[in-house]
Amino acid sequence: MNGHERGVIYGPGEGSCMAHNAHLQDNRSNSVYRDELNRLLMMLDSVGQNASRVVEIVGDPGSGKSRLVAALVREMALRNLHVLVGRCAESEKNMILHPFMHILRCSSASQLHDRLPFGGVELLNSSQVEYADLYQSVRALLEYCAEKGMLVVLDDFHHADQASVGLLDHLVRFPVPRLLLVVPHRPRQTSVRLRSAFAHGVELGTVERIQLGPLSIGQSAEILGVAPNDQYLRRLHRQSDGVPAYLLALAETGDHGRLGGPGGAHGHLADRLLGELAALESDERTLLRAAAVIGDRFNLGTLEAIAGLDCERAGAAITGLVARDLVRPSGAVPEYTFRHPMVRRLVYAETDPLWRRSAHRRVLAVLVDQDAQAGELAVHVEQLLQRPVVGDLPLLTRATEQAIATVPASAARWLKVMLRAIPEGERHGTERLRLSLKLAWALAASGQAAQSRELYREMLQTLPAEPRAVRAAAVVLCVQLECALGHYAEAGYLAQEELNRTPADARELTELMLARKFVADMKDKSQSRALTERCMQLARSQGDRINEAGALGMDALDRLFDGDITGAVEAVGEGAAIVDRLADRELCRHAEYLATLGWAELYLDRFADAERHFQRAYDLARQNGAPHHLPAILLGLGATYSHTGPLDEAMRSATESDRMARAMGADHVRSMALAREAACVTVADAGGGHKAVALAEKALRLLPPDCKYGRTDAVLALAEAALMAGDPLRCTALMLDLGGGKSMLGVPLIQRARCVQTLAEAAAASDPASLPGIAGAAAAAADRTGVGSHRGHALAVEAHMFRAQGEHHRALHRYRAAAQVFSRARMDVVRARMTAFAAHCAIELEASDEAAGLLVLARELARRSGAWHTYQQAGLQRRELAHLARGGGDGSEEDGLTELLTTREAEIARLAGRGERTKDIAERLSLSPRTVETHLTHIYRKLRVKSRAALASRISEGYEVTGRA
Hints:
- Helices cover 68% and strands 5% of the residues.
- It contains 50 helices and nine strands.
- Strands 1-3-4-5-2-6 form a six-stranded mixed sheet, with helices on both faces. The chain has a three-stranded antiparallel sheet with strand order 7-9-8.
- The two termini are 79 Å apart.
């Protein structure tokens, strides 16, 4: 008898052929089951001592049940014991006792039939028997065969007929001596009766259960013969879900240069799966193919539509597929998934290509109607685009429109393919133009501003005047892209040319004028106010609330830089009232209007409103495919956070703005982003003065010579960085050059007070005699604007002057007053600095209690806002105060503390003490998180603290943790 027959009885030394027939030549595959195999061998030893065992081996398809049984059969052959092997088949499920009959009717077992009770042979060969008599006959034959010990394997017993299940139940309740009965089965396909029989046997102590779960990463490495830390192995392990059969198949079809898996694994798996598919009913096969086209997850409603089955037939088919464990219910909602992605891959590959294409079209139509996510649409779009036809274009266009907002790069690629599929000529000219406009938008949305701009310019040459709204929208976006790339002259020319050809009563005129006005803000302020007033009048006359809001935001900024603060406040209030009433769908194309309003609110100390409008602008720009606006919006968010904190958010916003601007090639925006980064580093990094200087110098180098917008911020960032780096003379020189003298009249009024405050702080260290004149300029600027923070800066300038003159009492009073003003404005970053200055004056006045309280407050404000430079300075002052309180001792206690820590421990203690997480510390210092935790354990022990909070408190007592070598 050959190994392809269902039943076989092996004599001594013959067991190895079973392993060959099961394709289990690879010893590495079996070695991972050593624990399970050892359990079986221990049971085998007890069987030889007149005991009996029934073992159920439970595992999903491909989990290695047959491999484990094959290893056991080889061991049996070495022990000269008989092995009787049978396998159930679904096609024989209606045959009574078919697995037992196969092994007992085989030629090798026929010699034992004369050992049966009287009439036993007839019972075995009869189709009409009493089960009780047949059970006794089978049992008698098994008892005889097992006189010297025997192994019986009934593989794939989930396919067994009910009579066989009954016989197994009988053998579980009445075990055969010296018999090891091994029954592998798939739990999801096993009948309730069989599961119940095994459960009862476990309670009786006659059944042992071996569960084969997913492989560990180490076991996968052992099977494939590679190191456990191999990254390709880890990917295969993840993709296979730890199922051995899928792992071997993936290894065979993967990178043979690294993982040359055992030959034939993939083919063997495919043969087994195809065998399962061959047994399917027609509706089940159709439904499974539809599921393979839909994707990893699918519901019955979609399956009905794609497979073309009615509800009743589809329901019966899905029930059959679940029963066969080809698909499985997934989650609480009525969704299904394949038992493994490789099953889906095989079903998809075996499906007729023409049927597949038609099914992809039907799936895409359903998903588009459901407003599905772009990721769900992509696979079906890609399939249709492999051989695009004009008839598919309407459906593909709808899918692309839904994808532009979230995956614009993919949408752009789809549109390029679609355009190639449309024939040239007038007949399809309108369709080509429509798709070209969408492509230009998708390119812009994916950050490919230069390519988008070129396409827009090309289209504008042929774009007809009607419909006017389409052309106006294209022109406005092209102008915005030109500005984003720093091409202001081209943007201005394009906007003006379109304005000249647009009728005076056209609704699109306002939007075009606002685009022209934005260019004027960058290049020619002399035209700016006049354009703003015309935009406002036109929008109001047409009842256009959206463009009116845009005009009001621009008007507010105009007035702020012209010194008309009252008018700016009114414009901001009106603009905010409008945009807050407008829905996102109304503002979706105009995120820049919200950002403009946010900048005006920022200058007026309305930080909460500014943050809200910047954030909404950011969300709208991302959702609606306008990434060319994002760098400027992120700059606004970063500026807001650099006043209020947290400074790490300000830094993240500035860094992301820089990254986006660099990708776009927008150097002028990069300049402003780098200036913002420098400003953040200056106050957020305790030792970052020189780094901030380098960032600010780069920002100034990138700023175009003819671009006035952003120059004040870049120079201010460099001056403040130089001051923090210990170079007040350079700071003074930069500020005097920027402002044209001590009065700083060359700086816009809305920015003047802060610039004067920076000049005064530097002058206090380099030229105290110049401070009275500087103080007058700050007070004058604050009086003209009436903005709260400007008054705070003016008070700070006076405080710097009094401190430089040695009038510490008056300086303390001014610093406290300035801190209160900044407190009302929610400007915690500068408030912390003013409080620290006040503490310094209190120390000079020997007001120890007041100084201590101010330092506690300064450090808390600095910690909360992320102003770590101020936090460290306040810590040094607390140390000085403690030193004075001890009468000017040598500070040996503090030095003894820092000597306890190594340099690395001190570095980690400082970072942990200021609130950084283990992961962040690890990334900053290029260590693993585990190494950081180990250092922290040593630090806690040395400093006798038990938590990070206690560590922060200990360090904040005034000790400057430096560590030893």
